[in-house]
Specification:
- It is built from 11 helices and no strands.
- By secondary structure, it is an all-alpha fold.
- It folds into 2 domains: 55 residues, Arc Repressor Mutant, subunit A, CATH 1.10.10; 143 residues, Tetracycline Repressor, domain 2 (Orthogonal Bundle), CATH 1.10.357.
- The termini are far apart.
């Protein structure tokens, strides 16, 4: 009997956690203030229940970002970053990653404003890995540049995507142009530099 009670409590806690994260995500995408009180009301739970899972709004925001990034990483995996020519794989990954970022634009803005760089890096680890592996593969095959650190290229890919997202929210760029522009720009970032000798041929 005690085991059944423990399992029931665990199931309730897991349902509440998902409800809290879902509510936070909805509020952020609506551009609403995702305070603990607002999240509790949106989730249909008490503030005490929300605080039992997250002591601060920042902890809640990091958790919702981590969940979104984990889902994005799964989508990236489905895009087969380890298969085919590296540039083709990179283009597929960019398409999937932009779709996720565009879908969660409110979350991206809130996290950029409230989370520090180390917290953002921690939250994005799940998505960093497959892209890092792809860049390492492209370098090994001699089609991606090898004159700068791998982690710098990974950071550049994510920075460009988030920068484009900022411009879309500001109304200066179109979301419908994002994949094309990002694929062209990121291709230029990861491509080997042409030497003077090569240019002269």
């Amino acid at each position: 009997m005690p085991e059944a009670t423990t399992d029931h409590r665990r199931a309730v806690a897991e349902r509440n956690l998902e409800a809290i994260l879902d509510a936070t995500e909805r509020l952020l995408e609506q551009g609403a203030e995702a305070s603990i009180t607002a999240v509790a009301e949106e989730a249909g739970l008490s503030r005490v229940t929300v605080y039992a899972h997250f002591g601060t709004r920042k902890e809640l925001l990091k958790a919702v970002v981590e969940r979104a990034v984990t889902r994005t990483a799964e989508a990236i995996k489905q895009a087969r970053p380890g298969g085919g020519p590296p540039f083709d794989a990179l283009n597929r990954v960019i398409e999937v990653a932009w779709s996720a970022l565009d879908q969660h634009s409110g979350m991206a803005q809130a996290s950029a404003e409230e989370l520090g760089s180390s917290e953002m890096a921690d939250a994005h680890k799940a998505a960093f890995r497959p892209i890092r592996n792809l860049i390492v593969r492209g370098r090994r095959e001699g089609v991606f540049r090898a004159d700068v650190p791998v982690d710098w290229l990974v950071a550049s890919v994510f920075a460009l995507m988030h920068a484009y997202g900022d411009l879309v929210r500001a109304g200066t760029m179109k979301s419908s142009d994002a994949v094309r522009v990002l694929q062209a720009t990121i291709a230029g970032v990861v491509s080997p530099l042409r030497t003077d000798a090569t240019e002269g041929r």
